[in-house]
Every structure is written in structure tokens, then in C-alpha cells.
Sequence to fold (392 residues):
Amino acid sequence: MSRTKGEESKRKLLQVAEELFAKKGYQSTKISEIVANAGLTQAAFYLYFKSKEDIFQQMLEDFDQQLIYLSDVGKKAVELSPKDVKSYVTNMFIQLFTVLGKNPNLTKIALQHATDSDRIRKKIVEQIANNMSNNQRFGIVKEEIDTWIAAESIVAVTERLVNRYLLTREKTEEELGEQVAQMFLSGILNHLKSGD
Amino acid sequence: MSRTKGEESKRKLLQVAEELFAKKGYQSTKISEIVANAGLTQAAFYLYFKSKEDIFQQMLEDFDQQLIYLSDVGKKAVELSPKDVKSYVTNMFIQLFTVLGKNPNLTKIALQHATDSDRIRKKIVEQIANNMSNNQRFGIVKEEIDTWIAAESIVAVTERLVNRYLLTREKTEEELGEQVAQMFLSGILNHLKSGD
Fold:
């Protein structure tokens, strides 16, 4: 995939800004430092962003979109054969931890900004709960599960494990994804005979 | 059970202090208000506590002891018949939510004081992980479970559900305890045939 020069500059600015925000904090970072570190001009910056606030918001929105996409995994469950649901969900957990681990600076920023993280958390919880409720009607999710409690729990565990084990590099994305799947899936999904 | 007058006064001071700290914050609460609201004298206060800091610390320590006791549930697992483990653990989760829900002010204080909650959280996680590792050797906990990840996850879920559903009174202690058990136990415990 080739990127245009403009896309490349924009991506570079976002990446440098992310590093500086995480290292020095949002307040102490100047646009002049972002452009200097990116090897670009102030004029180039203003081609893509209105302000420092704007680049920060775009950065968080891109990140949020990835998280929302990955946590929408439940939507696909109805299209899968029952025996594939578990491995599909496990892989999506691994991908989720991969995105969070690949962008440690952004993950730190996102988890630290309570207002932003509350907004995105709420949306993700709602999406997981709605998908689970739908899957419950199809018999994929156990009848006795309160889908809102389960959704809150999954998000809480993901956040805690990111902070505790992923950002510290004590565990890999695979280990965390597999453990989360191992802990939750037998309790939440109906055990369907393989081959069903 | 009869309490001595001294025990009764101390308990009353702790209870009033808890209410005032939660309502007005620790900083804004004066010892004079605590004693006035408890219908006691300053002299009585200083019989039991050295300072405002001291009553606060004693309050948190009592609370911590209860939480530590209840989260030590795994220790008993080896003494139970396999089919009783699940209901035993479920009941302890319900009791844990009951203690947290019965002391909403203290729970709010404890969850808000990051330093204290980190200290107690660490201890509880360690205790659960150690009990689980021991139970793993007895075949009660599944071989493939990373007991530290599981312990962190259980604590994270408990905290989140307390904040989100218990303190808001949207769910009962029983609902939360049963859901936590439902979600986690099939993934963590080995399925032993009933009657084993």
C-alpha cells in the first residue's frame, strides 16, 4: 500500500505528537516541537490540523474507532458455526490487546484522560452488551447471563490487564487474549457440542 | 451480644466519622463535628483516637480486614467436596458485595483513596493468586489458568461492579455475586462430576 506524501506527513505528525504528549504531557508540548521532531514545517501542520487540541482529538478518535471496531466482535457470532465462536472471540481479544500494546503512549493517554476514556468505555460497554443480548436470543450466550454486567466486566478486565501486564510488558498480547477468553467464555457461551 | 459503653462510643465515633468524611470530605471534617454528631465529648474522642488521621486509618484498617478475610475464600476450597466449591465461592462473592454495599460511604472513601486502595488491592490480589495456585496443585483450578491474571481480573471486576451497580443500587448483592460466579467459575474451576 502506497501512501500519498500528504497522508505520510499527517501520519508522521500524529505519531510524533503521540510520543511527545505521552512523554511531556499535553500541556507542555508545543506545536513547534511536534513539527521540528517530524521534520516538517508549521505550515504543513496547519494543512491537516486546526490546533494542538485538534491533533489530540483526531488521535484519540482514530484510536477509539479501532477499539470500537474490535470490541464489536460479538456481532459476527451469529454467522459462525458454534464451534468457531470461541476461537474467533479469542483472536479478537488478542487483536484488541495488540492494538492497545502497539500504541502504549496512546493507550496511556486514553486511560489517563478520564473524560475521554469514560465516553469511549460507555460506548464499548453498550456495544458489547447489545451484541450479547442479541446472541442470547440465538442461544449463543447463556440465558442466565446479565449481558450488561458481563460487558462491564469484560471492559474492566481488559483495562486492568492492559495497565498491569501489557504496558509493563510482563505478558504478551497472546497470553492476555487467551487468558481473558479462557476465564470468560465457558461462563458466558453455551457449550455447544463440537460439530453442531 | 452486649457491648461495653466504651466499645459503643468508639463504634459510634467511627460510624459518624465515616458519614462525615464521605459527605464533606476528609479535609473539611472537624473532630468537633464528629463528637457533636456522635453526642460525645472531645475527651471521649481522644480516649480512642490520637487524631483525625488516626480515626481515618482505623476505619480503613477495619474495612480492609473484612475484605481480606472474605477474599481468602480460596483457602477453604481444598477442604470442600468438589461439588460444593462453586456454591461456597458464590456465597462468598455475595458476602463480599454485601460488605461493600452495606458500607457505601467507606467503600467510596476506600476506592477514592488511590494509595490505600492500591495497597489493599495488591494484598487481595496476592492472596487470591496464591490460593488459586495452591488449588491448581490439587486439580481444583484448571491447569491453563494464569492465577495472577485471574486474580487481577476478579478484583478489577468486583471494583467496577461495585462502582457501577452496587453503589448506584441498580443491582443487588445477590445478583452481582451470582453473576461474577457465573462468569468466572466455569472458566477457572475444573468441571468435576457432581458426586465426586
In short: Residues 114-137 of chain B form the longest helix (24 residues). Chain B has two domains: 5-49, 58-188.
